[in-house]
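Hi Prof. W.,

I finally got the DOG1 prediction working! I wasn't sure whether to trim anything, so I left the full sequence exactly as given:
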Amino acid sequence: MGSSSKNIEQAQECCYLEWMSLQSQRIPELKQLLAQRRSHGDEDNDNKLRELTGKIIGDFKNYAARRADLAHRCSSNYYAPTWNSPLENALIWMGGCRPSSFFRLVYALCGSQTEIRVTQFLRNIDGYESS
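And this is what came out:
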């Protein structure tokens, strides 16, 4: 199991690095179009800017979808990726992306039945019969 989680971690890191590579390719182009817009202000440039913005948003959607798919196999890296710096992980937490937020969401979606099922599950683990 250790090697499969390591493989998933590597796949998640690779997914992140691919997305960052795409971002580093798009940023110079975005800066160039913004500079041209300031100097010229033509409609053709605005269309190119919209198209590039759409590509950047599409890149992020693809990244988020791939990351969500990988999170089904190993969710712990979803909350605090090992390839992030401590500052990046701190910013994720300060930004409100905490595991407790996800647990609250699941509880809200599942309703109060969750508490009853957790209690029954814990009783079964402890060897008590469920009533």
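The longest helix spans residues 2-39. Does that look reasonable to you?

Thanks,
D.
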